[in-house]
Every structure is written in C-alpha cells, then in structure tokens.
Amino acid sequence: MNPFQLIPIGTSPAWYNPGEPNSGFLLEAGDSRILVDCGSGVIARYLALFGAKQPIDAVVITHVHADHCLDLVPLKYGISLGTLDWQPQLWLPPGARRRLDRLVSTWDGGGDFFEDAFEVREYDPGEAFRVGAFDCSSIEVPHYVESFALRFEHEGSSFGYTADLGPNEQIIPFMQGVDVLLAEAALPEDADLSAPDRGHITASEAGQIAASAAAHSLLLTHVPVENGFEAALTAARSKFVGPTRLATSGECYPVAQRLAAVR
Ligand SMILES: [Zn+2]
Ligand SMILES: [Zn+2]
Q: Cα–Cα distance between 198 and 112 in angstroms, integer?
C-alpha cells in the first residue's frame, strides 16, 4: 500500500526540454495509480520507469493540447493490441471527447477509437468526482483552449495542479491549503505580461499563487530549459517561502508526509 505521493513522468513544455517527455504526473495512494495528463513521450517513460506490469487505473486530462494528451494514442494501441493488460478509465474535460474524435478521424473513421481501450468519461467543472482512491475537483482556468486545474484529496492530504493557465483569481481559493501545489511556469520573468489573454504564467506568479493559497510546498513544471531552471526557482522563491522545487521526472514527492523544508 503506497502513501499519497507524486511521481512526475514528464515535465517538458509544448517544446521538449532535451530527453524529457511532455506533461504527465503519476499519483499513487493505497492501491491506486492514476496518471494526470498524458503528453508526448509520457507512456514510453512510464514503461521505462515501472514496466508494463504496473497498470494505471485512470488517466485524467486537464486540456486537449498536444503536450498534455497526445500519448493517449500509443497507450490506446498498447491496450487494444493486448500488449498492456490495463483497463483504465479516461477522464476528459468537458467537450474533449469531441475534440479527440476530430483528431483521430484523420486516420480512423470509426468514432470509437478510445472507447476500445478506455472507459471514457467527461468530468463536470465544479462537480466532485471520484477516481480510484482520490476525491477530485476541477475549475476552468484561462488558457488558449478550455483548461481545467485539478485538485486531488486522499485521507486528509491534498495535491493541486494548475494545468496550463493564464493569470486569474479563482485559482487561489481553489488551491487553498494544498499540501503540494504543482504549478506551470512556462513564461520567463522578462516576458511581456501585458497581453490580457495570455495563457501561461511566470515562475514568480506561480510562487505568488502558492503564497496566496497558503500551500505547504510548490513544485514547478512546464519550464522551458531556455528560461533557466535556477532562475525559475529563484523567481518562485522570491514570492513563496515554503519548500520549492523543480518537478523532476522519476523522483518521488510525498504528499501525505509533505515535502521537507530543505530549500
Ligand atoms: Zn502545456
Ligand atoms: Zn496548453
């Protein structure tokens, strides 16, 4: 039986950091293993880390951008061809099933491409849903397509993931008091922040969200290597005094026991 813990599988932004898959994060608690986002390269890395004998119980997608969902395709083939003896649920944001069907229709006209491998469901924003051992909730956040921040609770501990998002106020109450906040930090600190409809945030803005929401600890992800990882950490720490790290694939971060205060 696992404690509540997070293992990043891939942390690259839309463009790859060298050797690193796009977004994918494994949550474990008890006997449950769920994958949050499934961007390009995530399943290959998952198999390298855990092998095919450790099935994922569910995949939960934050939004239909390639770097968050494209590896659903090889995962579907692994299951439907019988290589992976997995029977995962697939939780999609509202409207995503139609978007994915459009994508798949470029090579498969059947319309049940994913249903062949997954038990497909769409979650309702604002309505709690249960995935494995986790109570989940979602809130829509501003981005270039509909994007949903997610929060997972298990036996009194909590993990929040901002997904991709632009600046907004709703994220603060939604993430209030989380033990571990995983926040995107795609923009460099010297980015032009004046665009009213921008769909990403800086590391210092991620730090400010963690501080305002009184999170215990902060993990940064979706940081382009070109921004400088140390620069991103320094910027986040200028706003948030709790434990702050760069999410690193393959590492295990305790949620129930919380991150150590080492900085
Ligand atoms: Zn992204
Ligand atoms: Zn995105």
A: 34
Q: By the 8 A CB rule, do 74 and 113 touch?
A: no
Predicted confidence (pLDDT) per residue in 178-230, tens digit? 999 999 999 999 999 998 889 999 999 999 999 999 999 999 999 999 999 99
Name 156's Cβ contacts closer than 8 Å, sequence gap at least 6. Answer: none
β-pairing, 134-141 vs 129-131, is antiparallel
What CA–CA distance (Å, rounded) separates 68 from 184? 12
**How many Å apart are CA 186 and CA 202, to the nearest integer?**
6
Provide the 3-class DSSP secondary structure of residue 175. Answer: coil
Distance CA(21)–CA(46), nearest Å, equals 10
How far does residue 63's CA lie from ligand 2's centre (Å)?
7
Distance of CA 87 to the CA centre of its chain: 20
pTM: 0.97
> In CATH terms, is domain 2-254 a member of 3.60.15.10?
yes
Q: Which ligand is nearest to the CA of 93?
A: 2
Going from the Cα of 42 to the center of ligand 2, the distance in angstroms, rounded, reads 16
Kindly list the domain boundaries of the chain, sorted by start residue.
2-254
94-119 confidence digits (pLDDT tens)? 999 999 999 999 998 777 899 999 99
DSSP state of 56: -
